[in-house]
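S.,

Sequence below, as promised.
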Amino acid sequence: MSDGAIPEKKPLTALLTSFLARTGLSAPVLPWLFARVRWLIAPNIYNFGYALRTTVASLIALGIALWWELGSPQWAPLTVWMIAQGSRGKSLAKARWHMFGMVVGTLAAIGIVAVSPQQPLMFILLLAACIGLFCFIGTLLPGPATMTNYRIHGMRASGFTVAIIALDGSADPDHIFLIAMSRATYITLGVVIETVLSSLFQFRLNERARDRLASNFISAVGKASDALAAMMSGNRNALRNSPEMLASLASLGDQIEFSEIEMGKHGHEGDHARAALSDVAALFSRALDLSALMDDPASYGTTWQKLADRSRDFLQSLPDRLKDPPEFPGLMAELASLRADSRLDAATCLDIEMNMVTHPPVKIATEVAVTREGQALHVLGDLLDQLQDALTQFEASRNPLPHDRFHFAMRTWRDWRIASANCLRASVSVFLAGVFWITTAWPDGLVFVMFVCIVCSLFSTLETPAMASRAFLHGAVCVSAVAMVITFWAVPAVTIYEMLALVLMPFMMIGGLAFSNPAMILGAVAYNLFLTILVGPLNQGRTDEILFFNTAMPLCLAMAFCTWMYRVFLPLDPDGVRWDMRQQILRGLRNLARKRHPKLPSDVVGISVERMVRLLNTVAGRRGPIIDAYLSGVLSGMTVGLAILNLRAILIRAELPPAAAHDVQEMLARMAQFTGRYGGHYGRTARATRLAVASLERQEQVETNLSQRVEILRALASLRVISAELAGNRLFFDASSPYLDPIFS
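The prediction came back faster than expected:
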């Protein structure tokens, strides 16, 4: 290289390779090592921006708290990290519900201390009951039971607030109001600082929120259209192998609320987006009906195949065409042509059937083939109609309508047994921690109980609290080590707040970057929450060795205690969860068949989606043969349930011939007994369904009244769907079988 030449820059991988060569490590270690630390050494711009923004906000909150000479300034930055999220909508939603939870928790804490002066056991009982009640209510609130749903976070914040106020107030009940107001001041300060600062980092917020709504829907439609196209190509398992698509609809629906907050309350784009995602889920259920009717592809002729090929090509091109708004009118025109052709072809099949019936003798094999083709064409038309509804709602969300009054309510389906279990789990854990504190007279037991209350408030509503608390324990251990270095080495050397902020900033940045890494998110939450708690910055002193260890030790012991409690008291039993879910599905089918006012089709689809989400959450998303089999069973249960509702709607119209109506009623009466762990009546129900199919097929072959023939065909299609699902998933629907769970065999 000549003098003055600019040295060539080496990429990061080349530098790491040369470093590994010097240390003697093998080259294959490089990809693994880089993947493990990429979140720290090469974060993307959004993760880095989140970490920087939240770090600055927490340091500002801490500085203001010290400037105001508040007694416990560390609670202000803790609140910042508790509500900070990657997007403006998420941060605002969480901040609102955190403030609501703070108000509720403050009032509850004042009441608990006021009614139990000098009564430690009563105080612990009331505290445990209060936190358990918050967990019970949070489990029943709308939205998924995850860390991303901030209605539930409002109840978590209530438990957090009641713990930090009531436990401090129990030692000085005469000043409970002042303690409550000071804690509320810290929380309010943290909320205000985070929301104000996050708003400064937003650019083109409204446009980006609209783009996010559109991209989420296109992503959902893309997954659904791929599965439908594969099914129409002959892949019978295409729908069974894509339960994550339905499960993702729940999380996408959760994101709509945050986009609404970012767009403001000037329109109904979020309502249209929720309706569009609901139509996508209903589209999937229509596809399951069509898949069940396609058991014998030989029954479908060239007419069906041509329309199926056109529909498949349309579905495959749909996601890319939705990305181009000017293309939308042409896309809808093509969809309208497909819908019209499906109806015309179905009517043609019906006309051929009528000609056969009115000109005997009837060729049974030909008539059956035409009938099945007509049924498949009719269901395909329903599927395309549902797709049109979804696309219409999507366009309304992307291009708001003037004077729009549309509203689509957020729905949720909760299990009271799960809510009760979450309540008991939290209450018993807090009560035992309090009893331990009272009986041992541990001077720092109050800190131990406070951390137990915080963990129980945060994690008792999750599907896997033991796994979450274990990750939290790992984060607590890591933050204790980091805080020890800061407290013993850095803090004694600084005398002004600016230097303290410079010391804390890199460690907070590490926590913020770790929070952006999905594999480390729960441990990072513990790290970010408790860093300033352990460092304990003060105006008139500093945390010494005794105070530090008297805070860090109760913290780690509280994490370990909660992890142990979640494993021994009402622990998560995946086999039991699946068995209960299976029993609920069978019981639900019975209720759909016999109740005077059954659930709506949208409720059946929504409950099934929630069940699939819970199944995947109980195994942390790790699929296996048993989970796949249960997911297939949930889909089958949803398909059978929708078919039962179709049959009941046909009976309500009262256009079936008396004999056909009697057969359908007999089948539904047998389905009304379709439940129970032992003797689940599977055999008799399946037999009644097959007999009803055979009877309606005979009646349809000789029926000359057009309107009654159409009703028979509709009932026959639903019965064939039920028969196919009962036969294809016999082990799941037969309640006398343990079905893949060795614990019940």
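The radius of gyration is 31 Å.

Coffee later?
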